Amino acid sequence: MNELRLSDFDEKGGWASNARVSATLADFGSLSLSGSMSTPGFGSIEKKVSERSRETVKQYDVSSSLELGKLLNEDLNIKVPMYVGYSEAIRTPQFNPLDPDILLKSVLPTLEPETRDSIKNVTQDYTRRKSINFSNVHKEKGQGKTKSHVYDVENLSTTYAYSEIYQRSMNIEYSKQKNYKGALTYNFSASPKNIKPFEKSKALKSKYFALIKDFNFYPYPKKYGFTTDVNRTYSELKNRNVTASDVILPPNYNKTFSMMRSYDLKYDISKSLTLDFTANNTARIFEPYGKIDTDEERDTIKHNFYTLGNTNNYRHNTN
Prior knowledge:
The protein is mostly beta strands. It contains four helices and twelve strands. Strands 1, 2, 3, 4, 5, 6, 7, 8, 9, 10, 11 and 12 form a twelve-stranded antiparallel β-sheet that branches. The longest helix is centred in the last third of the chain and has 12 residues, at about 295-305. The radius of gyration is 32 Å and the shape is elongated. The chain starts with 15 loop residues before the first strand and ends with a strand.
């Protein structure tokens, strides 16, 4: 004889906590640590029993912003701002998703260690994030140095950023997303002297020669620069087969690799004649299909990168 009896709601409560620590490391940088945790049954006072949490959530985050230029000789005036971050979030359901009527904690102790880890890997919702970036790395002018030259290293600045997200869950065997960004910028600004070759000529004092006497020009442009931005996104997703069939689901890939170049020129040809020129070029760097595993595939990407990709949009403007 089978009997099903409903006696009352399970009103056992849960708990939750948050913690955060921030520290300033003099003028070198800052460090932040944070973490939180909540258990099944936790919820605000106005929530019904059915609306309360049915999972254990653990998560933490570590991040830091540092000025690595402080580790170098101060006379070099090099600025290297760096940001790093790392976080993890784990959601463990109260009930076994593979058998929703059974508490997960009552199933795990009965299993072998290897099987227990496998069940945890399948039932947990796990997310990991990693990132690091160096923004606007450059060298500043030394004390007392005011004159600029075309070849000055202070005209250059670079940026590099990398981030990664990894996920797995009941429906996703794994999901990886990686983002790369790099930038190189060159800017040169000058104050060229206006040249009037006939200004002091005594032979051109007559008003009839005013046009010749007032002739003037600037020997070189007032400003010119260029910027190159490179962005690459790589994602790989493999869905989990949650059915009883033996069908193997292949991973899906999504990749984009682009390069954008921009140019800027400002030239005061004379006091009354100026020239402004800007140009933007967007190129696509093609990659082989699927996962990149072999040296030959990597060489193909390198070749396409060094040849500046395939232009798919170009626009310039001249005033």
